[in-house]
Write a structure and sequence with these properties.
Blueprint lengths: L1 H16 L3 H12 L11 H16 L1 H14 L2 H6 L4 H17 L3 H17 L3 H17 L3 H18 L2 H17 L3 H18 L2 H17 L3 H15 L5 H18 L2 H18 L2 H17 L3 H18 L2 H17 L3 H17 L3 H18 L2 H17 L3 H14 L1
Helix pairs in contact: 1-2, 1-4, 2-3, 3-4, 3-6, 6-7, 6-8, 7-8, 8-9, 8-10, 9-10, 10-11, 10-12, 11-12, 12-13, 12-14, 13-14, 14-15, 14-16, 15-16, 16-17, 16-18, 17-18, 18-19, 18-20, 19-20, 20-21, 21-22
C-alpha cells in the first residue's frame, strides 16, 4: 500500500510541477524524516502541510488547495490522526493539518483543528502551547489580511507566553505583532515589538526570530527612505541566519538588501545581492526565489543601460511566475517591464505593463506596492508630456499614501503634482 501511496504522490506533484515535482517530494520527505521511496499514511499530515506550503509559496492558495485536495483523496487524514496512539504525535498531526488548511485557504477547517488543540492546551494549563495555537489562529487572519483580528490573537498569544515566562514564545509573539503593525503602517509600534522580539530571542539564541525581526526593522527603515539604517538591519539578519537552514529568510534578506541598494542607485551592489538570492534559490530548489532574483536584477540592469539583458531576465522570470501563478511576482514583473519600456521611450508598451501591474496589485490588495506603481506611472507620463494624465495617477498615489499614514511619501507626490501646475 505504501509503495502505491508513494507513486500517487509523485504523480500528483509531477502533474503540477513537471520536472521538479519529484525533487520537491523527495526534499520534503527528507525534511520530515520520511522515506521518499516508501511514504506511509502516518507521514501524510506533515507531508501534506509541507507540500501545501511549498505550493502556496510557488503558486498561491489555488495550487496549495489543489495539491491538498488530491492528497485527501488518497487517505482519510482525520482517520489517520485518530488512529495514532501517541497523544504528542496525534497533536502534531492535528497541527500539521491545521497549517495545511491555512496554506490551502480552508479557513474554517483550520480554525476547527486549532480550536480543538487550544481547548486541550487550556484544559492542561499549558500556556506555552496556548500561545502557540493562538499564534496559528492569528496567522489565519493575517493570511486573509484581517490585521485587526490577527492582532487580537497575537496579543492573547503574548499574554499566554508571558504567563508561561517562556522567552522563545514571547519572542515569537512579539515578532508576529511587529509584523502586523508594519502591515498596518504603524511603524513606531512595529519597531517597539520587533525590538522586544530581538531582546527575548537573544536570551534563547533563536536565529530565525533574530533574522526575521531584523528584516522587519530593515523594512520599516526602507519604507521611510532610511536606506543606511535598513542596510544595517539586513546585514544583521544575514549574520544571524548564516549557517542555518533558513534558506527562505536568507534569500529574503539578500533580496531586500538588493532592493535597498537599488534605492541608493548602487546598481552593481544590488546585482551582487540578487545573485546571492538567486544562488540560494537554485541550491534549494525554490524556483520562485530564482524568478524574484531575476526580475529584481532587471531593474538594476535597466539603470545600467543593459536593456536587452534586462529583458532576458524579465522574460525568464515571467515564464516561471506564470507557471507557478505567483501574482505578487507577476505584478512586480509587469512593473519592471513598465520601467524597461519607459527607458526605451516606448510609451504604449510602458502604459500597458504599468496598467497590468496596477490591476494585479489591486486584485491582491497590496496598497503600498499599488501606490508605488501609480507614482512611477505618473512620473513617466510627466516625462512623456502628458501632464493631465500624470496628475490623475499621482493623485491616486497621494491618496493611497495618505490612507497608509505615510506623510513623507504624501509630501513627495504632492510636490510632483505642484510642479505640473
Amino acid at each position: 500500500m505504501a509503495k502505491e501511496l508513494t507513486k500517487q504522490i509523485f504523480i500528483i506533484m509531477e502533474r503540477e510541477m513537471s520536472d521538479i515535482g519529484n525533487f520537491i517530494v523527495k526534499k520534503q520527505c527528507m525534511l520530515i524524516g520520511a522515506d521518499p521511496d516508501n511514504i506511509e499514511p502516518r507521514d501524510l499530515p506533515e507531508l501534506a502541510s509541507n507540500l501545501s506550503e511549498v505550493m502556496r509559496t510557488f503558486g498561491g492558495y489555488e495550487k496549495a488547495r489543489k495539491i491538498y485536495s488530491e492528497i485527501k483523496k488518497l487517505e482519510n487524514l482525520d482517520k489517520v490522526v485518530e488512529e495514532e496512539e501517541s497523544e504528542e504525535k496525534r497533536n502534531k498531526m492535528l497541527e500539521d493539518l491545521g497549517m495545511t488548511c491555512i496554506f490551502a485557504a480552508e479557513w474554517d477547517k483550520a480554525f476547527e483543528y486549532f480550536n480543538k488543540l487550544l481547548s486541550e492546551a487550556e484544559m492542561n494549563k499549558d500556556n506555552t502551547l496556548v500561545s502557540r495555537y493562538l499564534r496559528r489562529m492569528g496567522f489565519i487572519h493575517q493570511e486573509r489580511s484581517e490585521f485587526d483580528q490577527a492582532l487580537e490573537y497575537y496579543e492573547r498569544a503574548l499574554e499566554a507566553a508571558e504567563e508561561a515566562n517562556d522567552s522563545l514564545t514571547i519572542g515569537q509573539s512579539c515578532n508576529r505583532i511587529g509584523g502586523i503593525y508594519w502591515n498596518k503602517g504603524n511603524y513606531d509600534l512595529a519597531r517597539e515589538f520587533l525590538e522586544k522580539a530581538i531582546k527575548y530571542a537573544l536570551k534563547v539564541d533563536d536565529k530565525r526570530i533574530l533574522g526575521s525581526a531584523h528584516i522587519g526593522l530593515g523594512n520599516i527603515h526602507g519604507d521611510n527612505h532610511e536606506a543606511e539604517e535598513a542596510i544595517v538591519h539586513y546585514k544583521d539578519a544575514l549574520n544571524f541566519l548564516e549557517g542555518t537552514n533558513e534558506i527562505y529568510e536568507m534569500s529574503r534578506a539578500h533580496n531586500n538588501l538588493g532592493d535597498t541598494y537599488l534605492v541608493q542607485g548602487d546598481w552593481n551592489k544590488a546585482l551582487e545581492q540578487f545573485e546571492k538570492c538567486r544562488n540560494l534559490g537554485e541550491q534549494s530548489g525554490w524556483v520562485n526565489i530564482v524568478a524574484w532574483a531575476d526580475f529584481n536584477a532587471s531593474e538594476a540592469l535597466i539603470h545600467l543601460g543593459k536593456l536587452e539583458q534586462a529583458k532576458e531576465d524579465l522574460d525568464k522570470s515571467m515564464k516561471i511566475m506564470l507557471n507557478i501563478g505567483d501574482k505578487v511576482g507577476l505584478g512586480g514583473i509587469h512593473q519592471n517591464y513598465g520601467r524597461l519600456f519607459h527607458a526605451k521611450k516606448n510609451w504604449v508598451n510602458m502604459e500597458e505593463h504599468y496598467k497590468k501591474c496596477i490591476e494585479i496589485f489591486m486584485e491582491i490588495n497590496t496598497p503600498l506596492s499599488l501606490a508605488g506603481a501609480y507614482t512611477e506611472l505618473g512620473l513617466a507620463l510627466k516625462e512623456k508630456g502628458d501632464n493631465d494624465l500624470a496628475k490623475i495617477e499621482l493623485r491616486r498615489a497621494a491618496n493611497l499614501y495618505l490612507h497608509l499614514n505615510l506623510e513623507k511619501q504624501v509630501k513627495r507626490v504632492l510636490g510632483e503634482i505642484e510642479d505640473l501646475d
